[in-house]
Amino acid sequence: MVKALMLCGHGSRDRGAVEEFRGLAEKMARRLPDWAVDYGYLEFATPIIREGLDALRDKGAREILALPGMLFAAGHAKNDIPSVLNTYAAGSDVSITYGRELGIDPKMIRAAGTRIREALRADGWRDGEPLHDTMLVVVGRGASDPDANSNVAKVMRLLWEGLGFGWGETAYSGVTFPLVEPGLAHAARLGYRRIVVFPYFLFTGILVDRIYAGVDKAAAAHPGIRFLKAGYLGAHDLVVETFVDRLEEILQGTNVMNCQMCKYREQVLGFETEVGLPQESHHHHVEGIGTGPAAGEGVHDHGEHGHSHEHPHHHHGHNGHEHHGHEHHGHEHRPHGDHHHDGGHHHGEDGHHHHHKHGAHGDHAHSHDHGHSHGHTHHPYPHADHPLGPRTLKGH
Question: pLDDT, tens digit, for every residue of 350-384?
């Protein structure tokens, strides 16, 4: 039985883009020597998808695995390609199994990180230097599907946080907002001296050219800011590996859960040292609070830790904020006037506020960090020195 893979592209009027997609298919064929690999496009270019399927069928394929050659699933991947494949299968003696788009994936983020670092190095940046003075703008295609648009924003955040940029914004080349030029005009107002613009695109084409032209315009309008153009993804080896993963998913019938971006499972950009860390619940110290002694007493025992704390009126709302009577967000009503509070919240490493007041009238405030007194530790945050981060991340 011939093992057959069909890569389904969108197609472009740009010859360069069509050539690059063909190059990707050839790279996939080299990567998968036991497979017959072919490709085709939905529109604007030949071969069309049907012709690629015909070629595989002529080689004896009766079961074809098909992948969308797309970053995100919007109308083309969700509707148009499946329609073409279903119509073909219904009129022939082959079965076609369709896999998922590349999506938000650690390998794709690492490929993107490579392109961004290449642009920074060309500007004189050295690996490991802080990027606090530099802003990242990721430009996605833009779709009429907010799910696809929000995925570009998630990619931007993973790159922003993974690389430690001072700030990050998302823009789109078309269809939705903000478009590139208003997006860059907005970015220029934020005060960063260097802005890296990265098109999260697989291939060249009219849209990528338009993005770079928009960067040139912004650079001319803001001579005090260095605008860097990062390269698009192209057929980066990690992109090829992500396609191979999508093929494996079809073969294995994988139930793809939303943990694919989990930093404990994969080398998520910037958090590589946390792969394989033992996972433990860091909330054992609040488990069952509110189910024990009468309301107001708040005494609970920490068992193996051998100590207990009194938490008068200590509540965590669902939104993670802490409510101590009248004490809210950086100001405090002090009816007794017998103690001082600096107004700053102490954030434990799990993001909750921990103010444990001892004594009936709260006659002194005591900050207590669960992160270090209960025997578990958090991995050091890779960008704990970020100037816009919480003070409590510093020095851990």
Answer: 444 444 444 444 444 444 444 444 566 778 888 99
pLDDT at 335 over 60: no
| Cβ-based neighbours of 35, under 8 Å, separated by 6 or more | 3, 4, 5, 29
What is the Cα–Cα distance from 217 to 255, expressed in whole angstroms? 45
Architecture field, domain 106-236: 3-Layer(aba) Sandwich (3.40)
Kindly indicate whether the domain formed by 4-101 is annotated with CATH number 3.40.50.1400. Answer: yes
Q: In this predicted model, what pLDDT tens digit does every residue of 98-128 receive, in sequence order? A: 999 999 999 999 999 999 999 999 999 999 9
Note the helical H segments in the chain.
Answer: 15-31, 49-58, 75, 81-90, 106-122, 146-163, 180-188, 206-221, 237-252, 370-373
314 DSSP 8-state letter? -
Burial annotation 157-174 (CB, 10 A radius, 16+ → b, else e): ebbbbbbbbbbbbbbbbe
Calpha distance 124→75 (Å, rounded): 41
CB-CB contact of 162 with 269 (8 Å): yes
Domain with CATH 3.40.50.1400 in the chain: 4-101, 106-236
